[in-house]
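[RESIDUES AND BACKBONE]
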Amino acid sequence: MIRQIRRLSRTITVDDQPLRVIAVYMSRTGHGGTWTIDHADETGYEGVACVDDVARAARLFLDAGRRFRLPQAAAEAVGYLRFLLYMQQPDGRFVNFILNWRGQKNLTGPTSLPSGPNWNARALRTLALAAITTEDAVYREAFDRAFEPVTRDSYYADIRALHVLAALEVYEQTKESHLRRSILTWCDQIAGLCDDHGRLLNWRHEVNPHLWGYVQAGVLARASATFGRHDWLHLAQETVLGYLAPRVRAGFPSRTVIPYEVSSVIANLEAMAEVTGDRRYRELLFLARAWFRGRNAAAAPVYDVVHGSVADGIDDDHLSPNSGAESNIEGALALVDELPWRLYYSD
């Protein structure tokens, strides 16, 4: 995972400033063949690297630095953070893609516009972590500029959940009243989007919530611990035990499963285990993480320990031969406590 993230990463120079970016896709030619970096073209040509991935990578290394007291990991995040600052627009929002390795911004593509909710939410969350784990005020300033736009518009619950996580990160350290107000309002909105079975939804009248980015249960659990809202925790429990647990126990049986889906489920289970101390969530967490090691429809490891890479998913019981940025970053976030972090920074 970390090795593949580093294979995908490169340093570019823009205005004499070194920025660390991550190529979106990487494919392999033949069994055991060489890796080839690809650009993104799902909606026409999008670009070579994006905020969506770089923000998650920066958060990964910042979190590892904090958890394991590894300043080298936090230092590795700095180049990625510089890229986020470069991509932030004067109004606080973010362009997503660069078109080439010279750093030319994609200002018009539908997956790159500054109005895009996904990359803005992920950048905001990473800036929140950078603001509280570093001594550089530039990240708090960037967070404040990014935070103001997301308070004005409405979003699907999965995106709003990322805003809550970002605000919680800063609020738990600073206790700022405006962050408290936003968190309470947004969590009530998330909690209000549930069906007759108490299952949290991404939008009203949704039938089967997608698993990628579906972290509302974990978010409500974490917020409930901060604000003493047992009603939020109850909804989180109903969602995890009634909707997510059967999928975990069945080894994520859908026709197509990607690492981002599994990592999102793991994020919910981690929060529930931490907040409640209930052994059931620890057991589910163990089973969910086992998907990466072969407890899946392909009966094959998604995480290739030998090559240090995560496959892009499973489709019709077959493992993808590709291994791009999102899959490796989400895989690392899902297994962060189990990775040999000190080996990555050994002399």
Q: What stands out?
A: The mean pLDDT is 94.
